[in-house]
Amino acid sequence: MGEILIGTSSWADKLLLASGWYPPGVNTAAARLAYYGRRYQVVEVDTTYYAIPAVEVTESWVAHSPESFVFDIKAFSIFSGHTTKAANLPQDLRPAGAHSEEQLRRRDLSVGAYDELWSRFKESLEPLAVKGKLGVILLQFPHWFKHGEREQRRIIDSALRCQPFRAAVELRHSSWFTAQTAERTLAMLAEHDITYCCVDMPQGHETSVPPILIATADTAMVRFHGHSKLWATGNKQEQFRYAYGDDELAAWAVRLRELSHEADRLHVLMNNCCAGQAQTDAAKLAELLGLPWSHEVCGGSAG
């Protein structure tokens, strides 16, 4: 069985900080990361989607996390086909005349600027990589990113640009997993040694992806979005407000244990980030899996 790492898709979002999950006195970024790191073995960094972090920031993550701790990094938005504000780009790479609030796409940048963005992004992750703390770069493609040959080439190109770091891909449109396309989608990822990010999420929507548990690389990955009934109509909080039941988690523990036999390492991220629910459910899942560090997750007042 491969190593199973369980964590959440944030350690410092506003709702978590307001929930009381962190004890009094744990009120700095460094202290929170250290506290989180004593209870979980992996975390997903979401801030890198909005801006490329300074090397000093990632060096701080290294310094304030346990030796064996792992960071999964969400790719900068423009790398996965999203828009980004001009203000989120380094000033010297912004298109001439772009105002700070202008939403930009890859096509708005010169080839040289886009290449340089990738170079700086990977440079910012070097402190994590050097210490063995870099997990995957998560390329989370937008919900309008439909199956097609051009889109497949975009996935492969983006994954190649992640090298020498590992790329993981999360797809968010049902067209990738029809009876005609699912096998080809997964085969493409496996052929190029790209981690497929399986998701558990509400079904029945155009953006729904089925929870196919498969390892397409030596690192497997599962993200849990929950099953909010407001997935299609609610705001971000309402979409991810969901508490997994004990029966659900027990069933998932069995499936995750089976998946772990297909990979060297399995990353499990709870993304139902509403207050401290993700931390609570991650702790329960770790205990159900009987992970050797689960007593640390479940011990104490903070879950």
Automatic annotation (TrEMBL):
InterPro entries for this protein: DUF72, UPF0759_sf
SUPFAM superfamilies in the record: TM1631-like
Short name of any one Pfam family annotated for the protein: DUF72
Bilayer-spanning residue ranges: none
Protein name: DUF72 domain-containing protein
Organism, scientific name: Rhizocola hellebori
